Amino acid sequence: MINPMKNSTEMQNSCAIRFGQFQLFPSKRRLLRNGQQVELGSRALDVLIALVAHAGDVITTRDLVQMVWKGVVVDDSCIRVHVYALRKALACPETSTSYVVNIPGHGYSFVAPVTLAPLDVENAATTQSIPAGELPPRLVRMVGRDDTVKEISDLIKQHRFVTISGLGGMGKTTVAIAVAHHFRSQFEGMVIFLDLSAITDSSMLPGTLAAAVGVQYQEAEPLQTLVGLIRDMRLLVVFDSCDHVIDAVTCLAETLFGQAEHTHILVTSREPLRAEGEHIYRLGSLACPPEQADLTAVDAMTFSAVQLFVERVAHNQSAFALSDNDARVVAHICRKLDGIALAIELGAGQVPAYGIQGIAELLKNRFSLFWEGRRNAMSRHQTLNAMIDWSFDLLSANEAMVLRRLSVLTGKFSLEVATQVVAPQGHEMMVIDAIGRLVTKSLVLAESNNCLMCYRLPYTTRAYALEKLHGAGEFDSTTERHAIYLVSLLERLNVQGEALPDYERIQRYIEYLGNICSTLDWTFSESGNLSLGIRLAASSAPLFLGLSMLDECRRWSGRALAAGVCQPNGLPQETVWQEAVAIASMFALGKPHSGNAASGMSKVFDEHLGDTLRQLRLLGGSSSTLTWSAEQQEFQLSTLQAMTLSDQITDPKGIAMMQWMLGDADQYAIQHQSSAQDSRAGWNLYFSQSVGDDFSFSYDYRVRALSSLARISWLRGYPDQAVQLGRQALHRANHLRHPATICLALIYVSTVFLWTGDWSAARQTIDQLNSTAKLNSFEPELAVGLGLEGILLYSQGNVEAGVQRLNGCLSLLSVENHQVLATMFIRCLAEGFAATGRFDNALEIVCGAMEMIENIGETFDTPEVLRIAADLYAARPDPDFELAEQYLNRSLACAERQSALAWELRTAISLTRLHLKQGRINEAGKLLHTVFGRFTEGYDTQDMREARLLLESLSLRSATCHLGDAATGLNITLWQD
């Protein structure tokens, strides 16, 4: 018989091979009988293809092994097993046709006639599934899982039985396929891959395995019969996606592990089998970049989640490359999707339609659960909805209910929160048990936090469960229970009883902020509970303030006030509620409505007569807002009210609060105490023992007081003490790790370093300010940092760069309404313009600063603004010395009123130079000498060095003049003689 297929591999791959009722498609690895798929093990199919390729010839056992196993030494019994399976598959009860015969002593031969036909594409496509037992091809490139494959492979070698568990879409099947390919040569090709997702009858499982291995097994026979047939085979069996038949897989895997010692088992499931001998490998998320403001594309691409996202986008947009501008957005998307491979792939697939920023925006609302993935993916991996349906449908009614209701919780939550939100009291154990089961099924993630367990729903699972919650009509009732719990939580925190609890305690409640905001959204909605929302807004306002979340405080306090329920009669702690709303409104309503907010504060103040500490705290809240917005009259009123309480204050907290309030008074030159008192107060503040609640209105009392006293000490002429107090403030602030307090201390203390001329210390504090403000998105502090850096650059001679930063700073400050700091930057900007010869611009700017002073009242740096105006008039091309002297005299008078010896020194230096320019040698330096003599420290600071050099030059000039006069007198005498 002539074999039409010998040496015709190319024709074989492009044709169908027909024999009897069968069609063989070697390139597709398909065997059909009358158009129906024939289940045949992978090795048995290899044997068939080899024999058919040499139909009519006798193939020795050794040659057949070389064709099928390609150099791997196998026992003859293995050949017999697969030939037996092949004969069974080809057996036709209705005919006596034989296809494969054994030639004793020689080998095997395919004896049926065969014909070639063009590839029947339609019939070849009748099944898209991989034949039972056939190992699917591995992905061309698998992102971020190389180490995982190695770890799992090592576990299989060591323990034989491994289960890959994890959240749906994490890539368990992909990893399992890669592991199986890794082992293919080691198991002589005997790697059996069973996709169990299509099996609906668990009793079919042993028969499916038998068919895949190629042994004859009847379903009615005991499982031990199957084990006996494969006991001597060296196998790796992969049970993929066995969640819905987990009991049957557990039984089969345990039996194989215990009785077939050459069989290795790999399972993929969203929950462990809990079987004897099983080792669990929990497949985690792909690595995502952390929150990082300066993340670059190069940095982002070191993380596997970003690599996968970019690779999938590039498949649809070949020219796509990640830019630095997109790096942070892509990192946010990957984090939001919990590093889940399938979710990232689906999101990346929609970039051509929505863009990267569009995908990020969609994540803020609802990620589409119906975006489609690869067409050839398994049906449960086509969409996220199908993926989660696969798990949800397997849940009990109780587990499904708990998962639905947990979806109202954002971020992490404790068992206490879950039990309160999911079900009424009395059902706690039912909820706890269900959560444990959901964790096991990878639908709820459990994490350890400071030795305590906390839980969260993956973003995609939460979106799915939230849809189910709405569909079940349970959203409103569940969210209401959540709101009631949060109000109770904040009452236990006792934020209403204090303006702000201590920082360490408040940190424990940061994790609830997302839940508070989302619940507030519902309470103020049409279907929500308005009275409950008002209570929650009032209770959470101090929490927002303490964490510098002013936008949230402004939003919800405004909503509560707009609701028109300003007298919540019947609420417990009604007065406390009014206090919280009044405090919040001071921050929320801003300068245009400060009178309304202040009247509310005044009402609460009146109600608390007799409670000195609370009165002082309320006054501190109002003064904080007025200080930043430069409302002089209101600020002075609140400060004077605080001063009336000073005799009644004895506890350290009250003293600290008084110190920072009176320290802020230096912004308006309000006289309150002597320099000796300043120094003693700072010393006592630093070393006094903390009493726990040292925070109010976003800042630590002590740090704020120390920072203010540092500035006052410099103004009073004690620069060494100022630096010491400033460093104490920074030390305490950094120890507290409270961002808002750290920024406040850095702003105040860096100013002291700039005044004293310590450029190195100033650079260090300004850099820390900028990094802290940037990390915490403190926009006003970033603006101030920009201005302080401008002053530093100008002071070090880099004038243009300094002017550029000062311009940017003032633009931002005008938006943020931080007017009290504006004059400091305006006068420095004027100096910068003057240094570059732009006197008209400089004078225009300084005149604007003086106009601002006229509007808001005299500030701590009014003497300096007047001095700079004088210097400009004296230095311009057409100098006006008379006007310059008038401004200097005004500056001196203002500095004397403020007891600001430091400003007096600077003005005295300017006046001395003015006299020298006018030739008034006899007057020059007299005032400077007097002011310089009043200092007792700080001789190495910049101003003191400058004053000393000027006085020394004047002294030298005077001595030269005296020598000149004496020489002139001698010459006259000689001439007369």
Write the layout of secondary structure elements.
Blueprint (H helix, E strand, L loop, with lengths): L8 H6 E5 L2 E4 L4 E4 L2 E2 L4 H12 L4 E2 L1 H9 L6 H15 L9 E4 L3 E4 L4 E4 L2 H4 L21 H14 L1 E5 L6 H12 L7 E5 L9 H9 L9 H8 L4 E6 L5 H14 L3 E7 L9 E4 L14 H4 L3 H13 L7 H13 L4 H9 L1 H15 L18 H9 L4 H10 L8 H8 L5 H13 L4 E5 L2 E5 L2 H13 L3 H19 L9 H5 L5 H11 L6 H17 L3 H13 L11 H16 L4 H14 L4 H18 L2 H13 L7 H13 L10 H13 L7 E2 L2 E2 H16 L2 H18 L2 H18 L2 H17 L3 H17 L3 H18 L5 H14 L3 H18 L5 H14 L5 H18 L2 H18 L7 H8 L8 H35 L1
Parallel strand pairs: 9-12, 9-13, 10-11, 11-12
Antiparallel strand pairs: 1-2, 1-8, 2-3, 3-4, 5-7, 6-7, 14-15, 16-17
Helix pairs in contact: 2-4, 6-7, 9-10, 12-14, 13-15, 17-19, 17-20, 18-19, 18-21, 21-23, 21-24, 23-24, 24-25, 24-26, 25-26, 26-27, 26-28, 27-28, 28-29, 28-30, 30-32, 31-32, 31-33, 32-33, 32-34, 33-34, 34-35, 34-36, 35-36, 36-37, 36-38, 37-38, 38-39, 38-40, 39-40, 40-41, 40-42, 41-42, 42-43, 42-44
CATH fold-level topology of one domain = Rossmann fold
Largest sheet: 5 strands, antiparallel
Give the termini separation. Answer: 155 Å
Overall shape: it is elongated
Structural class: alpha/beta
**Count of DSSP E strands?**
17
Mean pLDDT over the residues? 77
Name of the top-level CATH class of one domain:
Alpha Beta
Q: Stretches where pLDDT falls below 50 for ≥5 residues?
A: 1-14, 119-129, 495-501, 566-578, 580-610, 621-636, 665-697, 970-977
Using the CA coordinates, give the radius of gyration.
Answer: 41 Å
